[in-house]
Amino acid sequence: MDELKKVLDIALVGEQREKVIKEFKGYLTGWGMTMPPAEMLVQDFGLGDFKKEGLVECWVANEMEAGYCGKFLFVFKDQTCPKHHHLTKHETFYIVHGTVSMTFNGETRVMTPGEVLPVPPGTPHSFKGISAALLLEVSKTCFVDDNYFANPRIPIGGNHRGP
Asked: Which is nearest to 95 in space by CA: 116, 71, 120?
């Protein structure tokens, strides 16, 4: 997963990463859930304030040739995945556990377990944990350069590609 390596370059590492993973696994245990064996990416989007803007991603599949991706996304209460859009990637979010405030296309919607939200390419979106929450993202293949973040300080994505 070369695309995963790109985001690992700005992910949290060391003691801070281990502390977050331990807390995340505590929620999973409490919910009676386990994650598939996958790299756990603890992402602060290069902003240095994980509890405010960040998430934990478990990339289950990013099948380039087959054209699909599957990820579990976890946010803590009050933690936000920052506003962004994709030019080619279509995503569908399924709320597995917890409650999130999903903002997309200028609207905000509170979502709870069992709810589904398709997000077509070009649609600005973000989400925030109203409680600790686990989402399943099923999408077209993930290419890091197809992420266009509204915050120019986020050092990855298409708005940071060289000429």
From this structure: 116
pLDDT digits (tens, 9 = 90+) for 11-57: 999 999 999 999 999 999 999 999 999 889 999 999 999 999 999 99
Domain range 2-150, CATH class: mainly beta
Asked if 93 contacts 120 with a C-beta cutoff of 8 angstroms, the reply is no
Give 18-81 as a DSSP string.
HHHHHHHHHHHHHHT----S--EEEE-TTSS-TTTB-EEEEEEEEETTTTEEEEEEEE-BT-EE
- pTM here? 0.94
- Interatomic CA distance for residues 52 and 91, integer angstroms: 23
> Where do we find the tokens 């999130």?
100
Cα 131 to its chain centre, rounded Å, is 16
Residues 15-52 as b/e (b if ≥16 CB within 10 A, e otherwise) read: eebeebeeebeebeeeeeeeeeebebbbbbbbbeebee
For residue 94, how far is the Cα from the chain centroid? 12
Domain boundaries, the chain: 2-150
- The C-alpha atoms of residue 55 and residue 111 are separated, in whole angstroms, by 17
Cα 27 to its chain centre, rounded Å, is 17
